[in-house]
Amino acid sequence: MKATLLSLLVMMIGAVSFAQSSTQVKWTFSSKKIADKTYEVHATAAVTGNWHIYSQNVGVDGPIPTAFTFTKNPLVALDGAPKETGKLIKKNEEVWGGEVRYYENKVEFIQVVKTKSKAKTNVAGKVEYMVCNDEKCLPPSETTFSVAVGG
């Protein structure tokens, strides 16, 4: 009985901790046509307070880099990897054993995609990220997205 209650308590604390990262970052997703059958998918992270979100190339082992996983869609081809735009901060952090790369306030990730036809479809997937401040880091979070392209 004690083991069951302890397990339940640990799961509840974990669920609350997991949900906290999503309150520190507000994601918005959009698309923009840049050429015939070519679009930019924009994922914008607005980071609140004194928190920061890590780059896709964080620089050291330890913090979880921001990572995008795209759902396979036979009507869409990804063109390269997502690019980052924002004020990149590079800081030597003793706790991580080297220079880390992160963003405060706002960062935009831009993925170029090419549609294989003029049909309307979606680019979908998830973004995994971690936020920290000068005192602590929250567990990694995931946000799913779906953005219309084509048509």
From TrEMBL:
Task: Please give the organism.
Answer: Niastella soli
Stretch forming the signal peptide: 1-19
Name it.
Answer: Thiol:disulfide interchange protein DsbD N-terminal domain-containing protein
Keywords from UniProt, A to Z, are: Signal
Ranges for domain Thiol:disulfide interchange protein DsbD N-terminal come to 30-147
Is the NAD keyword given for this protein?
no
Does the record's keyword annotation contain Thylakoid? no
